[in-house]
Specification:
The complex is a heterodimer of chains A (341) and B (394). Among the domains of chain A are: 128-224, Periplasmic binding protein-like II (D-Maltodextrin-Binding Protein, domain 2); 248-309, no CATH class. Chain A is 37% helix and 18% strand. Chain A contains 13 helices and 13 strands. In chain A, helix 6 (156-167) links the parallel strand 9 (148-152) and strand 10 (173-177). The termini of chain B are close together. In chain B, strands 1-2-3-8 form a four-stranded antiparallel beta sheet. The chains are: A alpha/beta (341), B mainly alpha (394). Chain A: It holds the Pfam family SBP_bac_3. Chain A: Residues 1-24 form the signal peptide. Chain A: Keywords: Signal, Transport.
């Protein structure tokens, strides 16, 4: 590998050089506390998941995760700096230390988990890739043989599309754009017969960008599994643990009925598990290097997982996504948190 | 022979602080050493950082199958083709738009540049307005505008405009194309041989003119050589005459060949943008030829067009070629904006590869190396052309 060193030199400057020294990465929490804010990489704009309003306030499912972590670590959910990242920038931004968490509808895969120097925290949203088409032309995805399909570059979507076409022996022409706005724009202009991305993204695009949302249909068949979730850097196990247990804690909170509105009175609950989670009977926080109120603060800031889902993407929002696979395990879904004890 | 400048006699030099030459050698050695040291620091530090963070590095992924589709390719590929092939497909697409773009931009730019000297007021002003509009709008915006124009104004595929066997719609411009067989390959070889033959013929005609002052017809003969050899090659290959005709499928045209709206908007955008700069270069080149040269040509009895072709343009070329080279380089490099409008050029393929593998440094280093190589080759060719058109002192 020595001979590669020189050729690497010319490209090397951009990404890795500007980063913090590696030994500081094991002190992510200290750095966040010293800085006074959590830096969180989010999508540049995806309705329901992460979007900024006209005064620069971010909201969405992915944004709420960052708020919950900030509440646990900094005792203040508002002390988050959001860094909008596109698909190409996201991993480099996390690797180089520009952001502390990447919470940006990113699919967990083996190669991403194992070869990028990053860790998947857990699944925050179970998704699958689908197609949006103009109503009436096709009934299912296999009828797209010969079609041009608009897609954003730098996503797992592109590869799933190819795999799907090969597996079903149909021919699909991908028209690949760097920006998601360009890809959806080309679809709505009629350049492509279909637009493909994760089904949640399709719902988001249809609700926000279609002139008449009812003219567009999201095909029911999904062609992939897309477990979306936050990522952190490798090499800081304590930081990984905090993120993992904030995620699990919010799911567990829904299971035990702890809500944004009742978190204070739930402290008096006689349920021993509730007492443990809210730091009344046991101090689970100290295992994570936090105080015992950590999860209570997170829940007070964002609500439990179910509340976060309903508020951002649920049936009462423009996205109108059914709870489906993202329901709790005891309600027929896949959301299953290991116990907090 | 007169030397341009008197060359001072060099004294014997020794590497020491006491001599000017010695010091300059030492300064240069120090400069090179510090640049090399800086690069070494960058590389080792980067590799060390990547290793510590568990980021895998290396170019081994390039020989693995890439497994994603590309909308338009000049190179055949299949599911097991490697990332190398994918980068090759992107490079071929970049070259396709760059080469066609350079030819068209040169033609359009030259016409516009000459048009600035037209005696016709309207022609002169139109050329002026064109240059001012197209050179002052960022090329990125122009590409987006053309793409929107193509995809918004053209009819959807179902209502494609149909003339004969050509189709024009949002899906692109499809037209008949000969089925490629041995005959076409031999015809192409015939064209190349014809080009070489015409070069030698033109040279001998020039020599004949220098010696005797008599002109031999050049254009008709060279055309005859090229076309003749092309037809000969085609006949030798069995005179294949099969055409692939485009036909309407459910979603797209099948058969024939097709220019996608992505390719067309990229080509149109780059050509119109670059042509405005070339027009200015041509204008300034012609303007640099002094009026006396035109008068001298006229006094020799040359017609206006002969004076332009034989007297003004050869002198203007010396001024034109160096800045023209940078325009060719710019056009090639600007084609990397293709990713904004969905054309699968080298950068687009690299983006996809980068995200499939996470090897940012490796993918970008390949892109940088390719553009560097393309630029150096263009510069080399143009420098050679520049040298051959420079004033030959006798």
């Amino acid at each position: 590998m020595k001979s590669l060193n020189l050729s690497l030199a010319f490209a090397a400057a951009a990404a890795t050089m500007v980063s913090v020294p590696a030994h500081a990465a094991s002190k992510t929490v200290d750095a966040i506390k010293a800085r006074g804010e959590l830096v969180c990489g989010v999508n540049t704009g995806l309705a329901g998941f992460s979007q900024a309003d006209s005064s620069g306030n971010w909201s969405g499912l992915d944004v709420d995760f960052c708020k919950a972590v900030a509440a646990a670590v900094l005792s203040d959910a508002s002390k988050v700096k959001y860094v909008p990242l596109n698909a190409q920038q996201r991993f480099t931004a996390l690797q180089s230390g520009e952001v502390d968490i990447l919470s940006r509808n990113t699919t967990g895969t083996l190669s991403r988990d194992a070869s990028l120097g990053l860790h998947f925290v857990g699944t925050w949203f179970y998704d699958g890739q689908g197609f949006m088409v103009k109503k009436g032309k096709v009934k299912n995805a296999k009828q797209l043989n010969g079609a041009a399909v608009c897609v954003q570059s730098g996503t797992t979507t592109e590869k799933n599309l190819t795999d799907f076409a090969r597996a079903n022996k149909i021919k699909i022409t991908p028209v690949v754009f760097e920006k998601v706005e360009a890809a959806t724009g080309a679809y709505f202009s009629g350049r492509c017969q279909a637009y493909t991305t994760d089904a949640s993204g399709l719902a988001s695009t249809r609700s926000k960008e279609a002139k008449v949302p009812a003219d567009h249909e999201i095909l029911s068949d999904l062609i992939s599994k897309e477990p979306l979730g936050p990522m952190v850097r490798r090499g800081d196990d304590e930081w990984l643990a905090i993120n993992k247990w904030v995620l699990n804690g919010l799911i567990e909170a829904e299971e035990y009925g702890i809500k944004q509105g009742n978190v204070v009175e739930m402290k008096k609950s006689s349920d021993p598990q509730v007492g443990r989670m809210l730091g009344v009977t046991e101090d689970l926080g100290k295992h994570l290097g936090l105080d015992k109120e950590w999860l209570a603060r997170s829940i007070a800031a964002t609500g439990n997982y179910g509340e976060i889902f309903e508020r951002n993407v649920g049936p009462k929002t423009p996205l109108n996504l059914p709870r489906g696979k993202n329901n709790l395990w005891n309600n027929g879904g896949l959301m299953y948190a290991p116990p907090l004890r | 022979m007169i030397e341009a400048r008197p060359v001072p006699k060099k004294k014997s030099r020794s590497i020491s602080w006491n001599s000017r030459e010695g010091r300059s050698v030492i300064y240069q050695v120090v400069a090179i050493a510090s640049i090399a040291g800086f690069l070494w620091l960058l590389v080792t530090n980067t590799l060390e950082n990547m290793r510590r963070r568990g980021i895998q590095s290396g170019y081994d992924f390039m020989s693995q199958p890439f497994g994603f589709d590309v909308s338009e390719t000049l190179i055949p590929y299949d599911v097991m083709s490697t990332y190398w092939t994918a980068f090759g497909i992107g490079l071929a697409n970049t070259l396709k738009v760059a080469i066609i773009g350079i030819v068209l931009a040169t033609l359009l730019g030259t016409l516009l540049g000459i048009g600035r000297f037209s005696t016709n007021f309207l022609v002169r002003k139109i050329c002026y307005v064109y240059v001012e509009i197209f050179r002052n709008i960022p090329v990125y915006l122009q590409l987006l505008i053309w793409y929107i124009i193509f995809t918004e104004t053209l009819p959807a595929f179902d209502d494609a405009w149909e003339i004969g066997n050509t189709f024009l719609s949002k899906g692109g411009f499809a037209f008949p194309w000969p089925v490629w067989k041995l005959g076409q390959s031999l015809a192409l070889i015939g064209v190349l041989l014809g080009l070489a033959g015409s070069y030698f013929y033109a040279r001998s005609a020039q020599r004949h003119f220098d010696k005797t002052g008599q002109r031999r017809p050049v254009l008709p003969v060279t055309l005859a050589i090229i076309i003749g050899l092309a037809v000969l090659g085609w006949l030798a290959g069995g005179a294949p005459s099969e055409w692939s005709l485009p036909e309407k499928g459910i979603f797209q045209v099948e058969g024939g060949t097709k220019f996608s709206p992505e390719f067309l908007s990229l080509l149109v955008g780059l050509v119109l943008y670059t042509a405005s700069f070339i027009a200015e270069i041509v204008r300034s080149g012609i303007a640099s030829v002094s009026l006396g040269q035109h008068e001298a040509a006229a006094s020799l009895g040359l017609t206006k067009s002969m004076a332009m072709r034989l007297v003004a343009l050869p002198q203007a070329l010396r001024v034109i070629i160096p800045p023209l080279t940078s325009q060719y380089l710019n056009l090639t490099k600007n084609s990397s904006l293709a990713v904004a409008i969905g054309y699968p050029d080298l950068v687009s393929i690299a983006n996809t590869s980068l995200n499939q593998t996470g090897r940012a440094i490796e993918a970008l280093s390949i892109v940088m190396a390719v553009y560097l190589t393309l630029s150096l080759i263009t510069a080399l060719l143009m420098n050679w052309f520049n040298a051959s058109s420079a004033i030959q002192e006798r």
